[in-house]
Amino acid sequence: MLSHPARLYRTLAAAEMVTWALLLAGMAGKYLLGLGDLGVRLGGGIHGFVFLGYTLVTVLVAIDRRWPVRELALGLGSAILPFLTVPFERHAERAGLLPDTWRLRTDRPAGVLERLVGWAVRQPIPAAALALVGLAAVFSGLLWLGPPWQWLA
After folding, report:
1. CB–CB of 124/3 below 8 Å?
2. In this predicted structure, what is the pLDDT of residue 146?
3. CA neighbours closer than 13 Å in the CB half-sphere of residue 18
């Protein structure tokens, strides 16, 4: 899957949509059915981690394929509103933004970001391990900060 950007993106877009459903179900259980906050904690935690993964993969694919800034913003924004990642993924597929192979696996990178993404696509196992450690660190930091609505208070 790591060697096929379209499949990787499709999988994370679907996972992001499913985790939105988990979070919303947990919220319904808590606020409408009085079931407590376990569903929100579990659904929110899973959703948060998948959200970070989807964001990372969106940026990697955008850099590799040289997406216009508008498409990158739409891709990232699709994760903020529930259930938009799959429609965006389908749009990106139709627009030719999701290839079967990574461009930077063979093309010469231009600039620091392309060099970094080029290394990641040529070394997928160490890059995936590094990405998971980085995502876990960011996720842990965000958990330490508390729920997002408390950051604004």
Report:
1. yes
2. 82
3. 9
